[in-house]
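Reply to dn_fold:

You asked what the input looked like. This is it:
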Amino acid sequence: MQEENDIAKFDNIEYLKTGTNDQQVVYNILKKNQIFTILKDFTPILAGTFPININIPGSDLDIICEFHNNEKFKEIILKYFSQMSQFTLLSYEVRNYDVLQANFILEGFEIEIFGQNRPVKEQNAYRHMIVEYLILQRKGKAFRQKILNLKLEGLKTEPAFAETLLLSGDPYQAILNL
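and this is what came back:
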């Protein structure tokens, strides 16, 4: 039950307000720029490394969203973010789900808004984050530091977890299998 309460905190970004220094910086940037207010109709969730405190210099902010109307989502993205530095917008398909992905720089952070026509809590980015969060909670500080060290050496998050946990095969699928 406690783990469910811990996981529920990721539903909105308020937990960042009292988190690490990096999390507080991220919270202030997202609030000041009203990112989650702009995206409110698309159930935005901050996923990735910042929520679970395994970010390193250069880590991006991954905001995952759910859309039911690709064109409406695209319209909002273009209206509010297309003027941002290094803005790009991609449209593609992953495992029969439509994806719209916007990337840009905001106050020194790379932002990725990833929209998919499926609920955010069913998206792999969210599922990876939750599994990784639970592992970090159970394994403690030394394990977290191993992950951070591997990331600083250039590994992406899921491969770092897979290596540390001695998982074989595709690290992204191996994490989901946990």
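Residues 124-139 form the longest helix (16 residues).
Hope that clears it up.
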